[in-house]
């Protein structure tokens, strides 16, 4: 797995194109000429600072306040995750860093999904969920000049749309954390949002022990805290009235003056005690798929593969040198014809369907663990 140190990202107001790493803003800092790429800046983070890198001096449990923990130098890592049919546009990225909070060492992991797959817009103000023309800047799942692969593109016009109830008690993310020897130590689901009378809005993330949250392996006590972007929107940021329609925005997710801190992206944050990994220490945190029910794509579950993040390019500048997420002209399967379900494969990228995984040398539909 290729890792990159997290650096300054272009996250001024969190607006731009979900299908690229091009960001506008006067403070935009491009990737180094050597190709060292920070986490992508998916649009929609609002003005609270939620779009800053995981190392920023911000507390993810609040709405823009200073963090309580201190990142440990040279522990920040980021990987982008790509679908079978699109090796150039990340469908998600995972950041992780070791933090010290009140003398306790924690591993902070953050998953951010591309808003072209799912977002925090719903009700009458939903963006890209059908009933209107799809945004022109959606990623092209089949790659430039290629037709979309099966299961690859946004849902067609006329899809039933997106409601707040779609998000409540139905969405989750699975994290797998290993120790320094590569042994799987923790495997769990984090609940996105569920009914919660203890929260000001009446809704919030129930972490790993409620709603869609669940421990698959390891001790739940090792998970110190968990939250999501919608939990922060509704509670920490004080936007609890938006439980029918989300704050109105446009296809670039321009902040709404009535709710400027609203994060339109779907983001999961989790903190784990470093002691859970024993003498071997923390190794890595990964995902194998992205899921949303519903998503903007024909399939609600897409298998993903980690890789380097594409270089960040500031508006009006040429892309920096160095590796990105892959050759824009590259086809699934390394330039060879992709395989339908049941076809022989050696890697997920050999499979045509974004919802397929290569198991036992055969492309087959991926089933989300229960």
UniProtKB/TrEMBL annotation:
Instruction: Cite the residue spans of the region called Disordered.
Output: 24-56, 126-162, 306-344
Mark out the compositionally biased spans (Pro residues): 141-153
Q: What is this protein called?
A: Uncharacterized protein
Give the source species: Sorangium cellulosum So0157-2
């Amino acid at each position: 797995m290729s890792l990159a140190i997290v650096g300054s990202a272009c996250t001024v107001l969190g607006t731009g194109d979900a299908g690229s790493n091009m960001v506008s803003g006067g403070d935009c800092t491009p990737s180094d000429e050597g190709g060292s790429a920070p986490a992508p800046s998916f649009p929609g983070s609002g003005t609270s600072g939620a779009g800053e890198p995981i190392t920023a001096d911000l507390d993810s449990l609040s709405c823009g306040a200073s963090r309580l923990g201190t990142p440990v130098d040279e522990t920040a890592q980021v990987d982008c995750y790509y679908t079978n049919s699109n090796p150039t546009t990340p469908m998600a990225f995972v950041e992780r860093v070791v933090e010290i909070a009140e003398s306790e060492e924690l591993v902070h992991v953050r998953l951010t999904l591309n808003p072209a797959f799912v977002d925090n817009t719903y009700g009458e103000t939903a963006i890209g969920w059908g009933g209107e023309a799809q945004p022109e800047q959606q990623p092209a799942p089949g790659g430039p000049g290629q037709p979309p692969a099966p299961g690859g593109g946004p849902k067609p016009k006329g899809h039933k749309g997106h409601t707040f109830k779609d998000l409540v008690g139905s969405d989750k993310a699975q994290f797998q954390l290993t120790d320094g020897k590569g042994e799987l130590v923790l495997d769990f689901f984090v609940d996105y949002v569920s009914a919660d009378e203890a929260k000001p809005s009446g809704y919030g993330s129930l972490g790993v022990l409620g709603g869609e949250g669940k421990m698959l392996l390891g001790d739940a006590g090792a998970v110190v805290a968990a939250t999501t972007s919608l939990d922060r929107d509704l509670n920490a940021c004080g936007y609890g009235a938006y439980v029918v329609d989300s704050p109105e925005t446009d296809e670039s997710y321009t902040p709404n003056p009535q709710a400027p801190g609203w994060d339109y992206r779907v983001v999961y944050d989790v903190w784990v005690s470093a002691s859970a990994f024993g003498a071997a220490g923390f190794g890595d945190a990964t995902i194998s798929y992205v899921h949303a029910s519903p998503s903007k794509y024909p399939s609600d579950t897409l298998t993903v593969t980690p890789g380097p993040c594409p270089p960040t390019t500031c508006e009006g500048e040429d892309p920096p040198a160095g590796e990105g997420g892959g050759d824009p002209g590259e086809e699934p399967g390394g330039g060879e014809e992709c395989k339908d379900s049941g076809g022989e494969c050696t890697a997920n990228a050999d499979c045509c369907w974004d919802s397929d995984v290569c198991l036992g040398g055969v492309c087959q539909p991926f089933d989300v663990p229960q």
